[in-house]
Amino acid sequence: MTLHDEERKIEFSRLLADISEYFVDIPAECPYGLGFTALYRQAFFTCLPDPIMESFLVAGFRRNGNSLYNMACPECKGCVSLRVDSVKFKPNRNQKRVLQRNQDVTVELGPVCITDEKIDLLNRFFSFRYSRAAGAAEEYYNGFFLNSCTRTCEIRYRTEDRLIGVAVVDLGSSWLNAVYFFFDPDEGGRSPGTFNILNIIDLCRRQGIGYVYLGYWIENVRAMSYKANFKPHDLLCDGQWSRNYEL
Fold first, then answer.
1. Which domain holds residue 194?
2. Is 203 part of a structural domain of the chain?
């Protein structure tokens, strides 16, 4: 853990003590299918300054709409927060091939906004990945993407003016929080999830933004375990960030 993290941890402990009464524990079925009852510890916020949002990220919290939460599951500690240092990151051989396959992709950064094009793409993604009902995409945009308590942006990916992917990210002066990514199911051969993270890391490096928070890494869940391929990375275990230098 860096000195900056230690300072943040002390500040955050004081903050959390002051606002702990506003957090509630919500039991639910495990969203990752691990067979345990999940426990979301969450609170709602209207507007969080950059340093406060960073403190929550350093402490392992995630954002869902205008609520911040962490997993306080009594029977399972499978959800481990993972972040990548944009300066020290080095792409592996496979990731370099992904970059080659996506040289024709153009990237746009802008505000979060609803368009018919995005709604159509998200509905197709939901149908492919989750078999959700038609129309769920608009509800997701209004309730999740557009409902934020920090600075949130979209990264849009196109080939020949056709939208093939959208990443929703929270952006601070020294951190980026990856919130959600959806893509055209027909473009799966491009490894769009990997390409998105590579692009985000590169964006942060060019803008002098240090850490990219990728959310939870779960070793036994394939959809989450791929995040560990971005090395070196830090894992938050027992309240301490430790670095994996293995390349």
1. 83-214
2. yes
